Amino acid sequence: MTYSGGTDPLDPVYAQDPAIKINPHIPHPARIYDYLLAGKDNFASDRAAAEALIEVSPGTREGVRAHRAFLGRAVRYLAAEAGITQFLDIGTGIPTQDNTHEIAQEVNPEVRVAYVDNDPIVLVHGRALLAGDPAGMTAMVEADLRQPEEILSHPEIQQVMDFTRPMAVILAGVLHFVTDEEDPYGLVDRLKAAVPSGSRLLLSHITLDFAPKVRREDFTKPYDNSTAPMVPRTHDETLRFFEGWQLVEPGLVEVVEWRPDPAAYQEPIPGGHAWAYGGVAIKP
User: Given this model, what pLDDT does residue 107 score?
Assistant: First the structure.
């Protein structure tokens, strides 16, 4: 689409073209993550923030890849062993290799996946690249985790997801961008309440539990000027997101310890830890 209108977000042409809303001068978590995964959909501001993070934690790149590998293993478990056929992936980030729909539809071509993200660049690339198996269904929606009712009532989400049947809600690497003032536990509770018994919650979260010598303010500083500040949380604080649901083995653990694949190569992480917890739980 060629844009010839103004810069008012209320301008109808502006609203139709999400690329217009991208600000390359403000780092965004999705693009920082893309850079750390060696992607190309990022700007100088994102790269600068990522490099500042690497200065504090030299194992950041490897940790991000370990985080991504956890997501892949967990999605495969949900599709292959748990028999989940619907995935609501919130805060998905810019499409890369081994996306949720690719892994799940490899197991079951009829799997349906709805992606949600609040970054316009994710929407632009997602709709261009997320071509799923024709037997299933894949959608990309621009919405914000901080407004769960908007996600749950979105027409495209309603079209793809059947809320009368079990589904997997994926919150991978997104809740540490929700501040305490924004009530992250309440947001997750509303999502949990909207899905039926037998549904799963796949969740991962950044922590400083494995880095006692790193000051919180030094670790989070690269995100201070981004669209979303980072809030690391402890094991107990992360465990609270699963309240009322039953964690599957091995529980809430460091992402590299969640059902590791002995046949897969695990990249050594400088410092030895991925600085993230991950877990999957089932709704009674």
Answer: 96
